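ESCALATION

Customer reports they have been waiting on this structure for their group meeting. Please prioritize. Original submission:
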Amino acid sequence: MKRHYFLIASLALAATVNAGPKTEGSGDAAAFARLKTLVGEWEANTQMGKAHLSYELIAGGTALVEKETGEKMPAMLTVYHLDGDRLVLTHYCMAGNQPRMRARPFDAASGQLEFEFLDATNLTPGGGHMHSAKIRFVDNDHLKTEWAFYEDGAQKFTEGAEYTRVR
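Update from on-call: job pushed to the front of the queue and completed.
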């Protein structure tokens, strides 16, 4: 009987230690809160002409939709949301696939938020896809983005832009 109580107490202690504060989860929640401040309209001059981002909160503020349009490209969408305690995005790409990425720990001091590839739908073996993304919050009216495109398991190119809030 004594052994039984000792085992239960040990398991309870282990569960308590393992269930400690979720610093990564709280960091992801802080990163999502920062992303929500992007709601509005943004513009950048890029190598492919003028680019436009619009951000809108949907689903009672639980998802942020980013719509990207440009002079020489079809529109694309990226949806950011918390999945439990982790921040994820799904990018609906003109390449015809939908990569999902998970946020790395948010560096609030530098304003740098990075996402890494998790998986994708409609991705063929070796197929081209967006594999990572970086967002840097310069200030409330300036934003830098960089997306890395992979094909055949290697980075093929990156595309970046510096956006200014217009509304």
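Sent to customer with the following note: The longest strand covers residues 154-165.
Escalation resolved.
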